[in-house]
Amino acid sequence: MSLKISTPAALDDPTFVLVTDLVARCNQAEHLDLPISTDLGRAGDLLLADLDGELVGVATISLGREAEICLCVDPRHRRQGIGRALAVASAMRANAEGCPEPLFVVDLAAESGRVFVARLGAQLGFAEHRMDLDLTRVPAPLAPLAGLHIRPANFDDAPTISTILTTAFGDPPELVGHFVTERLASRFHRFLLAELDGQPVATLRLIHEDGWAYITTFGVHPNYQGRGIGRQMLCSVINLLRNEGQGSIRIEVETHNSAALTLYESCGFIRRRTFAYYRLARDMVY
């Protein structure tokens, strides 16, 4: 038995089909919706496991404020060390990118995933609900909030966006700054900025992937929370996306964030899935 882990710079058409088919089989086997996108980014975001010439596993690495790893192994080839080999290779890749403690993403509907992370010795970091917009539950448009203006952000807004996010979430400024700058330069990401009487107060990011629009990186400066700015911005963005012809809209929220959950549900979002993020132990690889 010969197992090879590779990091392709690009996928040819036949390999692309093999990857998408493998992810689909894994999802179907346990009724999952693993966040493994076929819309590949830069080289190194994807790792492939090849067993005696057959594609048997795939892992993706999402690099942001932290590295997030999601992998799947062909149900016919499990318990052969393939998942562990992919996890180790992915963790080493994340470490090379400056993320020594990456997060392993598990759809909590997957018993196999929960068992796997337990065997890795990974520790639960947090969990998030994935929420989809139910168009029948979208409320009537809100009355405009006096002095609030929401506009597309540009590259010059990077320091402002970073300050809002750092203040709202408490993440290290240098990591947030790099995260924001990199995504503002990407055509796949779109930031919006809310200003109240000319003062930047909130921001969010839009991603279009696999037919869905994801609302993410949504933060309101603590000094302006509780004034309805978050609700106004969210409703405005929903309206913007729908006017663009985008009806499939998603948002994610940590399970313990009751205030955000209440807001999102009141704007028409319903809980669909829950994903847990397990931190991979340093001694698993290093």
From TrEMBL:
<keyword id="KW-0012">Acyltransferase</keyword>
<keyword id="KW-0808">Transferase</keyword>
<dbReference type="InterPro" id="IPR016181">
    <property type="entry name" value="Acyl_CoA_acyltransferase"/>
</dbReference>
<protein>
    <submittedName>
        <fullName>GCN5-related N-acetyltransferase</fullName>
    </submittedName>
</protein>
<feature type="domain" description="N-acetyltransferase">
    <location>
        <begin position="148"/>
        <end position="286"/>
    </location>
</feature>
<dbReference type="InterPro" id="IPR000182">
    <property type="entry name" value="GNAT_dom"/>
</dbReference>
<dbReference type="GO" id="GO:0016747">
    <property type="term" value="F:acyltransferase activity, transferring groups other than amino-acyl groups"/>
</dbReference>
<dbReference type="Pfam" id="PF00583">
    <property type="entry name" value="Acetyltransf_1"/>
</dbReference>
<feature type="domain" description="N-acetyltransferase">
    <location>
        <begin position="1"/>
        <end position="147"/>
    </location>
</feature>
<dbReference type="InterPro" id="IPR050832">
    <property type="entry name" value="Bact_Acetyltransf"/>
</dbReference>
